[in-house]
């Protein structure tokens, strides 16, 4: 389980996070929702220790993040984290060189799933295909937790569908996923848990299934209630 | 350790294209320089002796004998060395900023590797150090080749042959690059290494605190310089001959190691606790 406790973060004078707390379980997809600038990406970066927090605690399976944790958790940002001049094959080789958790057979499977050619240079790929390579590099790691930042942002409908299909496949099954997205419609039916954020705090944290069963509300219904009500 | 070595190999690979261009330019410039300067000297001699009938002795008196010193002090020789030095100075900054700036987010990957972040810093520093040593080694190979080329082009009576050591010892900048004692070598390159670590720390200050970090970085550079230079300032500015030379040397070595250690410790702290992608 990923536990985020009382995270606080200031950028200059602006308080971005003001005591954010939530949990994300293994085997569930947790979605962080909030308008731009609300701090969703900052939370993900904070979990990965890619940006320092002013205060708060983060535990991954009850432990603080260390270098070994990067074999258990990975972050897929909204931009590719490889050198653009590399080919996809070189990027995969790089991952294999450094991560024990790299699963080459899964990487090969993802290559054909996304219909990518490993000899293609990353810089020559379309935005959609770049996002797929980025996803491939994260998903081919045998990690327990995946953090994804806006995986559907600015890419074509067919690529979106392909990426959404990943969430229903064995590629994500049994892992804990934290995802931030604006395109809630694409994956609403896949989300297990929602964390609604605004003004640096968690406005509401709920299980989608319970919400549907107990109150008959969809994620969008709850969002309307919380943000517009 | 394995990750560190892999990272060093990776970083060297990333710089290899530019490095090979630098090596190519240095080889071409220095060897072409030897040929051009030798031929021009011989042409001058021919013109003076055969056209203006200047006696050999008088020509030598007026123009001197051709030696490798005329070559190593020329722009043909110094130019590429200065270019390489400038390239490496630029690369100390570029080696970090290229992974951060613009659309490039490779720094995310580097910081998410399952290895100590300090390895990222150490691999970058090692890369710079190894590549600099590579250039110095190449210079040591180019000097005898240049010397041989000069011998082919200039007749024995018109030239002064020098050993490689003599050439280096007579040239200020070559003597800094290739000193004549191992201790001096350690001092020169230790100083360079110290400067790289201090600048890396300053860069990480900037990457951690942005504009405030620029100021902190500059202040850190000043403090590190003050620590290192304090005994020298005292010796040469306040009280001459206060230290014995060997005392001064030992103090400077200790302070140099101290500055490197502080820089690495601070960098480690910044990389783990403060830096932001």
UniProtKB/TrEMBL annotation, chain A:
Keywords: ATP-binding, Nucleotide-binding, Transport
SMART domains documented for this protein: AAA (SM00382)
GO molecular function, one term: ATP binding
Pfam families, A to Z: ABC_tran
Domain ABC transporter: 2-224
Keyword DNA-binding: no
Keyword flag Transport: yes
Protein name: ABC transporter ATP-binding protein
Provenance organism: Oceanobacillus chungangensis
From TrEMBL, chain B:
Keywords: Membrane, Transmembrane, Transmembrane helix
Segments traversing the membrane: 18-37, 75-97, 118-142, 182-205, 214-234, 246-266
Domain of life: Bacteria
UniProt KW Membrane keyword: yes
Protein name: Uncharacterized protein
Species name: Oceanobacillus chungangensis
């Amino acid at each position: 389980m990923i536990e985020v406790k009382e995270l606080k973060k200031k950028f200059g004078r602006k308080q971005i996070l003001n005591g954010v707390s939530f949990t994300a379980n293994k085997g569930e997809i947790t979605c962080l929702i909030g308008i731009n600038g609300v701090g969703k990406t900052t939370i993900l970066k904070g979990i990965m220790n890619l940006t320092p927090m002013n205060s708060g605690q983060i535990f991954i399976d009850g432990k603080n993040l260390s270098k070994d944790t990067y074999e258990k958790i990975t972050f897929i940002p909204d931009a590719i984290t490889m050198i653009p001049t590399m080919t996809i094959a070189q990027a995969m080789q790089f991952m294999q060189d450094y991560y024990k958790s790299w699963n080459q057979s899964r990487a090969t499977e993802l290559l054909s799933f996304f219909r990518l050619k490993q000899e293609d240079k990353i810089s020559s790929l379309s935005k959609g295909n770049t996002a797929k390579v980025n996803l491939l590099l994260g998903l081919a790691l045998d990690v327990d937790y995946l953090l994804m930042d806006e995986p559907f942002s600015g890419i074509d409908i067919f690529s979106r569908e392909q990426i959404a299909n990943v969430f229903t496949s064995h590629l994500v099954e049994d892992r804990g996923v934290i995802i931030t997205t604006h395109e809630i419609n694409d994956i609403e039916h896949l989300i297990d848990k929602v964390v609604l954020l605004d003004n640096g705090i968690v406005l509401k944290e709920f299980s989608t299934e319970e919400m549907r069963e107990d109150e008959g509300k969809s994620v969008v219904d709850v969002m309307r209630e919380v943000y517009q009500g | 350790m394995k990750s560190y070595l892999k990272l060093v190999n990776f970083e060297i690979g990333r710089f290899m294209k530019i490095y090979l261009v630098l090596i190519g330019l240095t080889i071409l410039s220095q060897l072409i320089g030897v040929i051009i300067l030798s031929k021009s000297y011989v042409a001058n001699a021919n013109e003076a002796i055969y056209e203006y009938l200047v006696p050999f002795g008088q020509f030598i008196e007026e123009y001197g004998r051709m030696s490798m010193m005329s070559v190593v002090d020329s722009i043909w020789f110094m130019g590429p060395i200065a270019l390489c030095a400038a390239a490496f100075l630029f690369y100390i900054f570029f080696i970090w900023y290229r992974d951060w700036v613009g659309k490039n987010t490779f720094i995310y990957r580097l910081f998410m590797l399952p290895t100590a972040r300090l390895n990222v810093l150490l691999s970058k520093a090692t890369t710079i150090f190894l590549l600099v040593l590579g250039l110095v080694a190449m210079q040591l190979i180019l000097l005898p080749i240049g010397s041989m080329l000069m011998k082919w082009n200039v007749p024995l009576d018109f030239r002064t042959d020098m050993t490689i050591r003599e050439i280096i010892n007579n040239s200020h900048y070559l003597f800094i690059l290739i000193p004549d004692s191992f201790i001096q070598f350690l001092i020169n390159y230790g100083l360079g290494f110290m400067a790289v670590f201090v600048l890396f720390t300053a860069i990480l200050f900037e990457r951690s605190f942005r504009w405030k970090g620029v100021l902190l970085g500059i202040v850190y550079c000043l403090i590190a310089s003050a620590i290192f230079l304090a005994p020298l300032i005292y010796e040469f500015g306040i009280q001459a001959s206060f230290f014995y030379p060997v005392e001064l040397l030992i103090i400077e070595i200790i302070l140099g190691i101290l500055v490197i250690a502080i820089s690495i410790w601070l960098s480690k702290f910044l990389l783990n606790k403060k830096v932001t992608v």
